[in-house]
Write a structure and sequence with these properties.
Blueprint lengths: L5 H12 L5 H14 L5 H13 L4 H44 L3 H26 L8 H16 L4 H14 L9
Helix pairs in contact: 1-2, 1-4, 2-4, 3-4, 6-7
């Protein structure tokens, strides 16, 4: 087993974190790569995984920070987090710039309008599926009132988070359906 250089750590983290979609797969790829080279064993991986799950925020970046710290102290943590996040951040910046520049084309605007309509249709379909059972039965009035409150708040320009907060308060204040004892 040779000593792990910061360059090798950066390469392994960058390759494994940026070749998957989703943190858990990237963490498993890093575990395998580092275990194969003898730089990380299962006990260390388990500890790093537990710490990353306990830490608020993105588990993968927490895992990379703790991995980097374990293998290279402060410099290792900085290198690992940068290697995990900078390639994806650069890709997002490039894609955002491309979308901003092609947004002026009428064909692209048409595609974006259709995509927006499709997304709105999916949201409305899901809302209908979730609401429909409550429109039948004794909760009908409360359900219609909740929908009316949400629509009025949205029309008044209230932010979605505040609408949800107000609906949560409304739901807490509405009488609950009595359940029969079994």
């Amino acid at each position: 087993m040779s000593a792990l250089s910061l360059r090798a750590l950066a390469w392994i983290v960058a390759r494994d974190c940026n070749s998957t979609i989703g943190g858990q797969a990237a963490i498993e790829l890093m575990r395998r790569s580092l275990a194969r080279a003898g730089w990380l064993d299962d006990a260390q991986h388990g500890l790093l995984l537990a710490v990353s799950r306990f830490t608020p925020g993105t588990n993968m970046l927490a895992y990379c920070a703790s991995l980097g710290w374990t293998l290279g102290r402060g410099a290792g943590a900085i290198v690992a987090v940068a290697a995990a996040s900078l390639p994806a951040a650069a890709l997002v910046a490039v894609i955002s710039a491309a979308i901003t520049s092609i947004d002026r084309w009428p064909g692209v605007r048409a595609v974006l309008a259709v995509a927006t309509l499709a997304a709105a249709g999916l949201v409305l379909s899901s809302a209908w599926t979730l609401t429909r059972p409550y429109l039948r039965g004794s909760r009908r009035i409360w359900t219609v009132a909740s929908i009316a409150i949400a629509a009025a708040l949205a029309a008044a320009g209230v932010t979605p988070v505040r609408v949800l907060l107000m609906l949560a308060i409304w739901g807490a204040l509405t009488p609950q359906k009595e359940t029969a004892a079994r």
